[in-house]
Design brief:
The chain has 23 helices and 38 strands.
């Protein structure tokens, strides 16, 4: 990201846990190579993303098929982190730190580590371990010397746990109120930017004024201007500064308490590391420690500074105590006094190993910039979504569109969705659809009522009306009187990838051109084309039956696929699908098929951009050729892919490209066939056995692939077929465009011709089952392999198929009403496939 300052030289990457390395290649050496080769901020994702993807594949297998977009709620823990915690428990006997010097030593080591994480030391700060941010705030509230002359202010986007401190302010009869987060610098010398529940105080120059704000809003991701913290402390109001760093600390290196001299700072470690939960810290600047140090009362026990209010005490926090009188002396060490009872010593002792595990993915500034880069990509793609009438699908809150966005905005999107008529989509509807796709997001107000009121323009009277109407925090009541009561939040972190972004955008495309369920026009109910339960015509119900697991395009007839996450349709078929074919001069100029040249199936495809250019290039590679072949796409084709949000993808070849060799020469060397020509295929050539099926007469209902069709196979059917015949059945043998996971095998075999099917905003219809030929017996991993015949196994499993041949998979073609008129039709991995109960 070019707006950021130039990086310092990357420090050495910490040693990768030996118990972890299970990959055939060294992850650590790969990461060191990529760190060494990273020269430009704007190339961050290009060089760093593969390292994250590989680490995620190996270390976060427990994530399964889920797409995790709630890093503001909690970080994800890795296998390495759990193994390090397990090793700590199994290799040590850690007793209560009040009993064990070794455990106490480890706790103190972790205390030093926490200070180092935020660039300070024991010379300036103390660390009090808590159960989390909430307990840290409660501890401060109990000990802060609230007086009638004090003022307590909190930012409008403060978490509920911060707003709750006003109860202590009320008890102390001090003035309290709120302010707009962006107005923080205005409060250095005066209170005019604050909003008080009662009248503003006449004299606010108390020694005990407290101002609280988030380093980064957990609602919108907006970041506070921390450069004014020192001026707040030294200005005429002499603020004591409470920094809620729960969200800001999630970004490695973003919180520097040496540069931001907050008096009190609270963090939670599950938001930073994912594990352990139930552990946080209150960091206290020594200059502010006397404010919350208890007074010793020889007869009445510890009391709060300046007020004489008795304070609760517990085990480990008193120097002397009599159970027979009021005699109790608090420990003089503030940390020992505030850490009541036995701390979470096992979790505390594990912190060094947790930090070492996450640092396996590089230094702080690299990991921080990764989350920011992925979050930025999500924002840009989300902001581009439009309904056919030009209205935005989403309203995004925050400061994403500012020039210095990387300084004022974290990797979080808070947004509201709108139907095509402009009315709001209830957040619960979005949450339900996300859950159906296994996408983890947050909906509602996220324990940040001020954020909702600020961005949804809700006054105090509105909140009271919502409550009277039955709306309570945490429910799914997303609309009251047609007004939204909450938003949708997605947030990104260390393990976020562009695949996660694609899943998110795929979810949002369901709402493109969607009308609210009760919307009427000219007396007719409009069909909800993106709904898993909708209608395409009167009396025809649509229900979700499967999920797209793989999406493949075959640009060159007979060659292997380009595996994509997101791809546009063009004129009813996948863009570039079977665009080109190979022909031989002197043989009627007929297209070469995979049956004639089995090595074609071993060609792998990838899509990339050349450095500094926007145009896409198809890269072809095979183990039978030392060099790759590059086929540049035209500017028009590249622009079309860019408009669809397509990113570089596919299987990258390991060999180098030989720009001096023509495509014809490259294929001639691969296939051993002379006088080849790579040319654009006609519709007839594209359909003739292009996906591994035999041609069939047009009058048959079970026919081969045809122009303007997509081939679908079921992963459940593949598994069942493999079980029946006792053979491994790789999906690549059947050369499908769509691999869909259904609940039951052979769901697709029951579809009659003409059955309406729906993917996002596009309606298809079943065009018949796909007749198979000898091409399915070609192994795309080894074209010379002579293994068991899948075609014979198919014929055996389908009695009566001899007349027209065995079938596997179903062909789809777009319905006459299936393509949206003004929106680009897109298919994506993870989207739901819906079917009607019967043909129209």
């Amino acid at each position: 990201m070019g707006a950021e300052r130039a990086e310092k030289p990357a420090p050495a990457v910490p040693a990768f846990p030996l118990s972890y390395v299970s990959s055939p290649w060294s992850f650590r050496s790969h990461l060191r190579r990529t760190l060494a080769n990273a020269n430009k901020d704007n190339e961050h994702l290009e060089w760093y993303l593969p390292a994250v993807e590989e680490y995620k594949r190996l270390e976060l297998a427990h994530l399964g098929e889920a797409t995790y977009l709630d890093y503001a709620g909690a970080a994800l823990y890795s296998r390495a982190q759990l193994l390090s915690a397990q090793a700590l428990l199994l290799d040590s006997c850690l007793a209560n730190p009040h009993s064990s010097p070794e455990t106490a030593r480890r706790v103190e080591k972790s205390r030093d580590l926490v200070l180092q994480m935020f660039n300070v030391s024991r010379a300036t700060h103390s660390v009090v371990f808590t159960s989390g941010v909430t307990q840290g705030l409660q501890t401060l509230g109990e000990h802060f010397p609230w007086t009638q002359r004090s003022v307590f202010l909190y930012a409008d986007e403060s978490h509920t746990s911060v707003v709750g401190l006003r109860q202590y302010a009320k008890e102390g009869k001090c003035s309290y109120g709120s302010f707009v987060l962006e107005d923080l610098p205005k409060l250095e010398e005066e209170l005019t930017a604050a909003r008080f529940e009662d009248s503003a105080p006449q004299d606010a120059k108390s020694l005990y004024n407290l101002i609280a704000f988030p380093g980064e809003s957990n609602f919108s991701g907006v970041r506070s201007d921390l450069s004014c913290v020192q001026r707040l402390r030294t200005g005429s109001l002499r603020w004591r500064v409470l920094l809620d760093a729960a969200k800001l600390a999630c970004s490695p290196g973003a919180l520097d308490l040496n540069r931001c001299p907050a008096d009190f700072t609270v963090v939670s470690f599950y938001k930073i590391f994912g594990y352990p939960t139930g552990l946080g810290a209150l960091l206290i600047r020594h200059e502010a420690a006397p404010l919350i140090t208890p007074q010793a009362d020889l007869t009445g026990g510890p009391t709060r500074q300046g007020t004489g209010r008795p304070l609760y005490f517990a085990g480990g926090c008193v120097s002397s105590l009599s159970a027979l009188s009021g005699f109790a002396i608090p420990r003089p060490n503030l940390t020992e006094w505030l850490e009541r009872g036995t701390p979470h010593f096992l979790g505390i002792a594990s912190l060094p190993a947790q930090l070492e595990s996450v640092r396996a993915l590089g230094p702080d500034h690299v990991r921080c910039r990764h989350a920011m880069a992925v979050g930025r990509e999500a924002y840009l793609r989300t902001a581009r979504l439009r309904h056919s009438n030009g209205l935005n699908v989403c309203t995004i809150f925050g400061r994403h569109d500012e020039e210095n966005w990387c300084e004022v905005q974290g990797p979080t999107l808070a947004l509201s969705l709108h139907y095509a008529n402009g009315s709001p989509v209830p957040y619960a509807t979005v949450g339900e659809r996300a859950a159906a796709r296994q996408i983890v997001i947050r909906t509602g107000c996220h324990c940040n009522a001020g954020g909702c009121q600020k961005f949804l323009n809700l006054e105090d009277t509105d909140i009271r009306h919502f409550f009277a109407s039955g709306k309570v925090c945490g429910d799914d009541k997303g609309l009251v009187d047609g007004r939204p009561t909450g938003v949708v939040r997605v947030s990104f972190g260390l393990y976020s990838t562009l695949s996660d972004v694609c899943s998110w955008i795929s979810l949002l495309t369901e709402f493109v051109d969607m009308m609210p369920p009760d919307y009427l026009e000219d007396g007719c109910k409009l069909p909800d084309l993106a709904s898993p339960v909708s209608s395409t015509a009167a009396g025809t119900a649509i229900r979700s039956v499967g999920t797209v697991k793989a999406l493949k395009v075959y640009p060159v007839k007979g060659c292997g696929p380009l595996r994509v996450e997101r791809w546009p349709l063009d004129a009813g078929s996948l863009f570039l699908d079977r665009r080109w074919c190979l022909k031989v001069e002197g043989r009627g100029f007929r297209a070469v098929s995979a049956k004639q040249a089995p090595r074609l199936t071993t060609v792998r495809m990838s899509l990339k951009r050349k450095a500094g250019e926007k145009a896409f290039v198809l890269v072809l590679s095979t183990k039978y050729h030392a060099k790759t072949l590059e086929l540049p796409l035209s500017k028009r084709d590249s622009d079309f892919l860019c408009s669809a949000g397509v990113e570089p993808c596919g299987e990258s070849g390991q060999s180098e490209s030989d720009g001096s060799v023509s495509s014809e020469a490259w294929f001639e060397q691969l296939l051993g066939i002379r006088k080849l020509r790579l040319t654009e295929a006609s519709a007839a050539e594209a359909s003739a056995g292009g996906t591994g099926e035999a041609p069939a007469p047009a009058e048959k209902t079970d026919f081969a692939n045809a122009p303007k069709t997509l081939l679908l196979v079921s992963t459940a059917s593949l598994r069942e077929f493999g079980r029946l015949c006792g053979l491994p059945v790789p999906a690549d043998r059947f050369r499908a465009n769509l691999e869909v996971d259904f609940a039951e095998p052979y769901e697709e075999a029951s579809w009659p011709v003409g059955l309406p099917l729906q993917l996002a905003n596009t309606i298809f219809e079943a065009a018949g089952r796909c007749v198979r030929c000898q091409a399915v017996d070609i192994d795309p991993e080894d074209a010379s392999s002579q293994g068991p015949s899948l075609l014979a196994a198919l014929a055996t499993a389908q009695p009566g198929s001899a007349a027209k041949g065995p079938t596997f998979g179903v062909l789809l073609r777009t319905s006459e009403i299936g393509l949206p008129t003004n929106a680009l039709p897109l298919l994506e991995v993870g989207m739901a496939l819906c079917r009607a109960d019967k043909p129209l």
